[in-house]
Every structure is written in structure tokens, then in C-alpha cells.
């Protein structure tokens, strides 16, 4: 257990659905991250929040929309996804930008 | 933009020392190099961080030469449970996080 939880752990959705991924940490960390991990590809950093403010958006398509209502919660809203968006979505938090604590991930399948 | 290269896979045997090297050019001069371990169906887990020379903790050592163009993760006396994917992570000169593609380490009995 890293102290970072993610729900749901598995999600299957159609291309016209809207769903949200949730990440929660009570470690007191100020930085939170969303990553995408596809088979045979490096971890892709999607979004970074520092003190609830988005500081990075690495050219992520607008069908992915992050939300950080407070320093303990992070959401990733999904809409009109494509099959190539199927992947493991990982949330992480960090106290110092060096050591990141990852959640178990949400395995997303887009049909 | 920094480019990271690490071996795709490695095999070793229980009780051996394993060294995994990550090559990284054009990285930030004043930031840490970190290594993570990932098991299937789990998020990566922090192993060790270093800035230069050698760092050792209870699970691994990290060797970083003076030019910081590479780093070597050393796992002493590995066991079957060390079978995992190992990633190095650096900041590039623009302070962007750059992950290596990962090294799949397989430990055999």
C-alpha cells in the first residue's frame, strides 16, 4: 500500500460513454500526476498538478479532462474515447517532485 | 530533449548481483536521477534516488559517474521476487520528467 488509491480498478466503456477516474491520497503531498501506460511504451506523463494548479499538460487530447478540486483528490474525466486510449492509467503523488507514490492504476478498455 | 536508453530485458539467477544501466544525455544538471520497480498490475514503486557518485539503501545501490550521462542500479543477491520491470527517471534540461522505457528483469532459480 502506497497511500494512493484509485477507483475503479477496471473500466470498460464504449466510445460514446462519459466516465471518470478517481485518485485519492492523504499523504499530504502537494503534487499529483496522471500517467498513461500502454503495452510496450514508456510511461506517458499526461497532467501534473501542484498545489491544485495544473502545471503541465503534455499535449493530451481534449477528450481527457483533469480536475483537481483539492490537494487530496484528482479526477480524470473521459469522453468520446478511442480504442487506442485503452491502457493502464496511473495516478501518483509526490512531496518533492523526486519521489513519486503511485496508485495501483485503472485498467481501461475502450470498445 | 533528453533521451534515455536502457536495456529492454535482462536475465539473472538467484543470489547474483544485477546491474542495470540507464544512459541519459542532456539531463538537468541539478536534479536527481531516480529508479522505480514495477510488478504486473501495480504502479511503479520508488527504489532509490541519487545525484552523483554512489548512494546505497536497504534494497539497492545507485552509481552515477561525474558526467551524469548514465546511472547504474545495482541489486545485490537477487531473489525470484526481484523479477519486475525497472525504470529510470530523470529531469531533462527543461525540467521535464523523462521516463526510460523500462528493463524487464527475470530472475531464474
Overview of the molecule:
Chain A is mainly β and 111 residues long. In chain A, the strands form two sheets. In chain A, strands 2, 4, 5, 6, 9, 10 and 11 form a seven-stranded mixed sheet that branches. Chain A is globular and about 35 Å long. Chain A has no helices and eleven strands. Chain A has strands at 4-7, 10-13, 18-25, 31-37, 44-50, 53-57, 64-70, 73-79, 87-94, 101-102, 106-110. Chain B has 109 residues and is an all-beta fold. Chain B has no helices and eleven strands. In chain B, the strands form two sheets. In chain B, strands 2, 4, 5, 9, 10 and 11 form a six-stranded mixed sheet that branches. Chain B has a five-stranded antiparallel sheet with strand order 1-3-8-7-6, with no helix packed on it. In chain B, a hairpin with a 5-residue loop joins strand 7 (61-64) and strand 8 (70-75). The N and C termini of chain B lie far apart (40 Å). The mean pLDDT of chain B is 92. Classes of the chains: A mainly beta (111), B mainly beta (109). The interface between A and B is medium-sized, with 19 and 18 residues.
